Please model this.
Amino acid sequence: EVKLTPMETNQEPSGEFDVAIVGAGFAGLYMLHRLRELGLSARVFEAGSGVGGTWFWNRYPGARCDVESMEYSYQFSDELQQEWVWTERYASQPEILRYLNHVADRFDLRRDIQLNTRVLAATFNETVGHWIVETSAGNRVTAQFCVMATGCLSSTNTPNFKGRDRFTGLSYHTGNWPHEGVDFNGKRVGVIGTGSSAIQSIPLIAQQASHLFVFQRTPAYTVPAHNSLLDSEVQREVKANYANFRARNKLLPFGINILHNEVSALVTPPQERRREYEQRWAQGGLPFLGAFADLLFSMEANDTAAEFIQGKIREIVDDPAIAEKLSPRTVVGCKRLCVDTGYYQTFNRSNVTLIDVSSSPIEEITKRGLTVKGKEYELDAIVFATGYDAMTGSLLKIDIRGKGGRALKQAWAEGPRTYLGLATVGFPNLFTITGPGSPSVLTNMIPSIEQHVEWIADCIFYVRDRGFACIEPTLAAQGAWVNHVNEVAGATLFPRCNSWYLGANIPSKPRVFMPYLGFPPYVEKCDDVAAKGYEGFVLI
Ligand code: N01
Model:
């Protein structure tokens, strides 16, 4: 990692701010803007050499959002949402990154953002009641409040394969892709993993590679995106009524504009059920999960969706043996449903080989490739599409120390414990945007981020305005919230598979369902807590 001196980053090494913000993605950018509007001083530290967070790092071929672009954008400024023109139904990574750069310029945010700077430690000083933030660039700043805008999927996971560093070819992680792009023409490429990132990149890598080997441990369900250019008429209509469109979406499950069928799959006659699934398949994307009300609650109902997708795989994939290998046997939607463009079709290409590593794992990485079942696959490039240490990874990489010098890592040793996903006992004046215990990844992230930013900003303003020094949740409120999050998840099919929602993809990570399945009631709860003078928090 390059360590830049404060001179090179053109920033003061030290300073006092009202708020320190970690991360300059969607969350950090809006947090800065909002705090400025309230007349507070803030400094953002960002590890990347540009703003954009996940959209800065994830530049792999085919990276695009699975929430439609008219929704996956800020709504805090009507001028912004009116002037920005999205070109596709699902925005591509370059377009979202352009948008975020536009936002940074439009609201003059850059002067308070220090790039190329990783926050290494944040320590609460109990005597004075402020945070000391230390960075890789040598900063040591103090701030009354510290806001972690570190993202839910920002800490990449590269499994510790034997011989991992021995490979002499090129290797990449989808979540940390070279800015100049990668030319796979004429190369033998191995992709490890078949989650969302792999499913988006595989069809494009296959078009370039001389041969592509896909190493699949668990097949994933994916539905076609049917991405297209965004109809200017659709865009005009949404813009004519943007506020209503946003307000209505906020009241929908997951905060996403998806039509949710209220009917149970099990009471629906098979023919009708099939019609519903066909319609959703033709529409494309995440709305597939809204086909029936009980899909995420009843195994029997979920099986009907699984059978439908398995049937589609058999229709699309020519070789029945490959179709069989590609067919998941898990619960649909219990890992994030993938959205693709030509994924299953890619396995009909003669230059693509699917290698099942479910029962015989990748044994080791060698100088020339990798081995499975004693056979060496010679490769010019390996793509690790192996996901993230989700939701807590980036937070716990920072040495965060609260009251009594206690490390967050220690406080969360058995899984993250928060009140509302916003704050943690023992860590006064520290907030997490879309933290574990909030709906975050089970919603449209942007309105969720905006809701958190606004709540946090109001809370900070309240604390200062009333002359308090610190705010911290009570043990009772936090305990009740953690139990509630678990209880809600336990009533669904979500805990039934080894997903990153559960931390199950990272060896040694405690198995705890991290996001809260409760949007939109969550927003009411947060509003209610604030209206009651921050119920469940202690202010001193
Ligand atoms: O990561 P993942 P991702 N040996 O964790 C495999 C969002 N996102 O980057 O399932 C062999 O889903 C692992 O196998 P298994 C979205 O929320 C959104 O793809 O653990 N394989 C799995 O197949 C998404 O859910 C978009 O058995 C190993 C893969 O690696 C989240 O980000 C696009 C392995 C990891 O899949 C993460 O997606 C991209 C091993 N040792 C991402 N270890 C869109 O908006 C792991 N794997 C569309």
User: Anything to note?
Assistant: The first strand starts at residue 14 and ends at 22. The mean pLDDT is 96.
